[in-house]
Amino acid sequence: MALRRAVHSDGFEAHARRAGNAVARMDAADYKGWLQRDFERWGKVIRDAGIVAN
């Protein structure tokens, strides 16, 4: 709970924005969905580019 309060504080958000980060307040379910979509999107980019790990 303390971490959630800190991350959702106005001070943290202002600091993150000054550092050039985007701030999106999401609950766990929204974050999970965003993460899954991001993996799918970048996975396709990587596969289409033929990038492989050695």
From TrEMBL:
It comes from the Bacteria. This is Tripartite tricarboxylate transporter substrate binding protein. It comes from Ramlibacter terrae.
